[in-house]
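Support request, please re-run this one:
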Amino acid sequence: MFSTCLVDGLGWLPVTASKDLSLREYLHRSHELTGLLGDVPTVAPAIRSQVLLPVVRHALADTLTYDTWAATLKAGRFFPEQLKAIDRYLDERLDRFRLFDEVRPFGQAAGLSHAKGEAKPSSLLVPVIDSGNNVPLWSGRTDGDPLPLTPAEAVRWMLHAQCWDTAGIKAAAVDDPQAAAGKTAGNQTGSLGSLGVVEVIGRTELETLLLNLPCTPLTEGDLPQWDREPQTQLWSSRPCTGILDRWTWPSRRIRLLPEQTESGALVIRQIILAAGDRCTTALTPDTEPRTCWGKKTEKKKEIVYPRRHRPSVAAWRGLEALVTLHREGSKHFETSLLLSQVADALADEDLPDDYPLRVALSGIEYGTQSSIVKDVLGDGIPLPVAALTADSDVREHVLKVVLQAETIARAITSLHQHLLQAVGGEAPPTGKGARAGDRILHAIDPYVRRFLAGCQRTPDSDLLTRVHLAYEKVLDRIARKEADSILRSLPSKAFTGRTRENTAGKTIVFRQAEAERFFYADLRKTLTYLYSDTPGPKAEDAA
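Re-run finished. Output below.
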């Protein structure tokens, strides 16, 4: 049987468009690598979660305290003793990282077979390829045309499936006592499927690994999947023992079926995929570091739940949740454990306040009870670390920039809906259909990102105000242009308008003049630097 080892024998970690590294080479060179690539935005977080982070965390074990974490981050590379510990860890587990080992294939259940004796096409692992009920619009491949994956591609998509596979019915493994008609039901999505994943991105891959490693002590008995008993065909429901277990959770039983081509190369055209373990431990901010959290009150009890990313919504629109720390006591949001750790490093002066931090957001939009993939989500923004300080000027300005964009977008939407009713139409129900204000958010997007990047260079308060004023002038110009476009498209009867009674029996006038008055009042109230009654800095002075 073929044997390919992820530690040294196989280059499978994509660091450039033409270069893949083995696990050991990647870790040794992480201080000089600037990124980890992926075919879709959800690949890199799956690789980090399933392999890179647990290897580093488990190899360094108790030696990774907050102090050593901060010292390594400042040094910009692993210390020699840390690399020796990582090498020793990998050398002791070479047999655990062989992709096609007959007894213990990496990430797989040896001998796994379906109850009906059939294999599935390898495209089942790839969310952007047609497979069964999952039919993405942009794919031209079908189950009758199996996707030939190289071993490197296969291991990446296998890890991706563990994190992001769809929910619902799965083909059952042989002798599964909980199967019915050769299938298992009630399967949840992969281990990251219920999250809006937030990764903290540094200048190098070494810094990115460290920034995504919580320094909390490991739980006794917590092990990654390769240090546990070999996977059997049968799944179980069990509690999670700690972060290493959480990172490498086997949400699916998978077996890759390699074949040799005439040229001698290995390809994987078929796989076996069955139900995996189901976690009985609830997610909390202390045990799941990769997501932000929402809060709500039900029956006088506070409920905390992982926030999922909204499709077609820019990352900066969720900035408030990203920078709201647990200790601030917000009623609505809480940031991730990882960003809280960054805030602590900033407070302890272990991270400079001009550090060029980025956050990468990724997730999957599922459909039909999470049984199909509708869209793969990914976005990233620069995040000024000073915004993680509760009383900083930078935080005040970046939150206000986001709020202003959202407020003006709502004002444009209100203008449009008011005018619709003025000419005899009906405003669409809340949350239904496209909003006129969405065009504002799209147009202002590059200016918000530029503002966030500029705030990473620790501008003084006066410069921040001047740049913010320049931003308001841009937002004002875009908003007025959009309003003019809407007004020019109106029929003449919008001028005279119409009256209606609301549910309370009060008469309301819908007329162009009222719509314009409300809109321009919103502009003046929202853009406080631009429309301030007191003299202030001129926009043309801003950098």
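The CA atoms of residues 353 and 386 lie 6 Å apart. Residues 534-543 have pLDDT under 50 and may be disordered.
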